[in-house]
Design brief:
Layout lengths: L2 E6 L4 H11 L7 E8 L2 E8 L2 H7 L7 E7 L14 E2 L5 E9 L2 H10 L10 H11 L4 H9 L4 E9 L6 E6 L4 E4 L4 E4 L11 E4 L5 E5 L2 E5 L5 E2 L4 E2 L15 H7 L1 H9 L3 E2 L4 E2 L8 H5 L3 E6 L1 H18 L3 E5 H4 L10 E7 L5 H12 L3 E6 L5 H5 L2 E4 L12 H19 L5 H12 L1 H9 L2 H11 L4 E6 L3 H16 L2 E6 L17 E4 L6 H13 L4 E6 L11 E5 L7 H19 L18
Parallel strand pairs: 18-19, 18-20, 20-21, 21-22, 23-24, 23-25, 25-26, 26-27
Antiparallel strand pairs: 1-4, 1-10, 2-3, 2-4, 5-6, 6-7, 7-8, 8-12, 9-10, 9-11, 11-15, 12-13, 13-14, 16-17
Helix pairs in contact: 3-4, 4-5, 7-13, 7-15, 9-13, 9-17, 13-14, 13-19, 15-19, 16-19, 17-19
The protein binds fructose -6-phosphate.
The site of fructose -6-phosphate has 14 residues, from helix 9 and helix 17.
Length: about 600
């Protein structure tokens, strides 16, 4: 949440900053701002709303030192005053910040008692005022002293009016990366913002403070001692950030799933042997055989992928598997017995709650397998092994292709664990044959776009939906409901179909259509009974079924068929149907699809 970009060099940093912010705007888009030096004087320009509003404000401006920010509001409403950079009262210090300062109220009260007058509602202003207070000619020292009093999470970049050639940065529990160039240096909350300028980077660790000038980067630890820094090389490609021929990134990414699922499985299995080889999993077969229990931590869509995986792993490999919401797990005192393997799933690799859960699991001695899309992210660096999704950048804030890639990789993982235990070679071969067919089956689902759009047209005006399913279709129903909520702003409940009669059925009526996810052969008849129950209460019913399912057309108002596959893999195909439905409903309702209100792509605050 909140994107940070900084530059010190000889080029026009304003242009570079706008370009950098564009690449990380998905981190927040409530407002944007930039701090510059014009004729050696510090100025801040800010605009509410999308980056294009800031672009208009700074047209023609130039500065060789800049800090720039795109905001996801935490403390303080979305106004110009609360947009970053935030300055202290004397306008000497400008700060951009990603994170939350938990003790900001007491720090603010203390400063106010000393006579400091605050002009914003942000926690960030406390940082700016503190740095100004601590400043005695040395910006580095002022930042070091100020941040020592902060509790919570922060990545900050700071400019001071007396130092037009310098930027000071610091972080705690929030990612920050310095890009090292020749005669120029960068800072960003995400390597994506700077990779097209330099591949040489320094990851700033918790508690460290860095002083950045055009030709030097100096790092200091929390005891203010200068420390050597390790320069790492970003190995991943400069990704394609364009929308191509699509109106929205979300639709582009829905269509990319034919290729992204192929990438996720590429060179990761041998069909002939019915086995899986995950080269980035640094565990030997005897270590994998020693796994007695699996704990999965994740949030949102990644959590839903984890839920599907728990069914898969228990069913195929017979290993007890629990799925935990990261934000709940981090405040438990989890029992991590010998033989526990932890899997942390996060598209961004930056979700604060998942990272905290990982740290807790590590502290308890668990081996962490990360499942992540972003190379160089915090999860990728902190996990003991990291399996990459290879889905390419997911720019649409709502997760689509990352989900289906997560399901592919988790299916392969489950199969690997199963083959190491009880599954026969023949069963392994059959499973792999089915998984290899998934990309072409996704293409067949995409061919149904017109039918799904037509159904969306009929139902776009409804304000409430139920998505129901059993077994593998239960997490699928949660994911489908989440998509509709987040991009179409329509209230949707995902529910285990069997639970409907334990309360929520009271809500079912002609004003609330029921989307029944029936692509689960084992429970099909049971879900059909639930469809009948919904129908009896005048709910319109939309059924997603396997191709050729008999009798359903006379029961459900709408039927969407998906190609036949095994139940374990059906969530991938059903996800594409539900993504398309949510997309079309959102478009018909005129919703902001790629950047839904109140959301951000990387949830780096609690
Ligand atoms: C929903 C969505 C979110 C994310 C969640 C976790 O479409 O995008 O629910 O899935 O914020 O994000 P990651 O996977 O980056 O940890």
């Amino acid at each position: 949440m909140c994107g940070i970009f900084g530059y010190v060099g000889t080029k026009n940093g304003v242009t570079l900053a706008l370009e950098g912010l564009r690449r990380i705007e998905y981190r927040g888009y409530d407002s944007a701002g930039i701090g510059v030096f014009e004729k050696n004087k510090l100025h801040c320009y800010r605009a509410v709303g999308k980056l294009e509003n800031l672009e208009k404000v700074v047209q023609g401006k130039s500065s060789t030192t800049v800090i720039a920010h795109t905001r996801w509001a935490t403390h303080g409403t979305v106004t110009i005053e609360n947009a970053h950079p935030i300055m202290d009262s004397s306008k000497a210090v400008a700060v951009i910040h990603n994170g939350i300062i938990e003790n900001f109220q007491e720090l603010r009260a203390e400063l106010e008692r000393e006579g400091v007058v605050f002009s914003t509602q942000t926690d960030t202003e406390v940082i700016a005022q503190l740095i100004a207070k601590c400043y005695e000619g040395d910006l580095l020292k002022a930042v070091q002293v100020a941040v020592a009093t902060l509790k919570g999470a922060y990545a900050i970049a700071v400019l001071h009016k007396d130092h037009p050639d310098m930027c000071v940065v610091a972080c705690l529990n929030t990612p920050l990366v310095i890009g090292v160039g020749i005669g120029e240096n960068f800072v960003a909350s995400d390597p994506n913002a700077i990779i097209h300028h330099t591949r040489e980077v320094i990851y700033v660790n918790d508690g460290e403070v860095a002083k950045i000038t055009a030709d030097k980067v100096e790092l200091f630890d929390s005891a203010f001692v200068k420390i050597p820094h390790k320069i790492e090389t970003l190995l991943h490609n400069v990704e394609d950030f364009s929308k191509g021929a699509y109106e929205h990134y979300t639709m582009k990414e829905i269509h990319e799933q034919v290729q992204s699922t192929k990438n996720a499985m590429y060179a990761r299995f041998f069909e002939d042997y019915g086995t899986v080889v995950l080269e980035d999993l640094h565990l030997k077969p005897d270590e994998l055989l020693a796994v007695e229990r699996i704990v999965i931590v994740a949030c949102g869509t990644s959590l839903h992928a984890g839920m599907v995986a728990s069914y898969l792993i228990e069913e195929l490999a017979g290993i007890p598997t629990e799925v935990e919401i990261s934000s709940e797990f981090r405040y438990k005192n989890p029992i991590v017995q010998k033989g526990t393997l932890a899997i942390a799933i996060s598209q961004s690799g930056e979700t604060a709650d998942t990272i905290a859960a990982v740290r807790e699991l590590k502290a308890k001695g668990a081996y962490i397998v990360g499942l992540c899309n972003v190379v160089g992210s915090t999860l990728a660096r902190e996990a003991s092994s990291c399996l990459f999704l290879r889905a390419g950048p997911e720019i649409g804030v709502c997760s689509t292709k990352a989900f289906t890639s997560q399901l592919v990789v988790l299916s392969l993982f489950a199969l690997m664990m199963a083959r190491l235990r009880y599954m026969s070679k023949v069963d392994g071969q059959k499973f792999l044959k089915d998984i290899a067919e998934i990309p072409e089956k996704i293409a067949l689902v995409l061919e149904k776009s017109h039918q799904i759009e037509a159904i969306a047209k009929k139902y776009a005006a409804y304000e409430n939906f139920f998505f129901i399913g059993r077994r593998y279709m239960y997490p699928s129903s949660l994911e489908a409901a989440l998509k509709l909520k987040e991009i179409a702003y329509v209230n949707a409940n995902g529910y285990a179909a069997g639970e409907l009669k334990h309360g929520p059925i009271a809500l079912i009526s002609e004003t609330c259509p029921t989307f029944a996810l029936c692509a689960d052969a084992l429970t099909y008849d049971k879900v059909l009974s639930n469809v009948m129950e919904a129908k009896a209460r005048h709910s319109k019913t939309i059924a997603v079924v396997y191709e050729g399912t008999k009798g359903i057309k006379s029961i459900a108002n709408e039927v969407i068929e998906i190609p036949n596959t095994r139940d374990e893999l059906a969530p991938i195909l059903v996800a594409v149907v539900c993504q398309l439905f949510a997309y079309y409903v959102a478009r018909l309702r005129g919703a902001e699809i790629d950047q839904p209100k109140n959301l951000a792509k990387s949830v780096t605050v609690e």
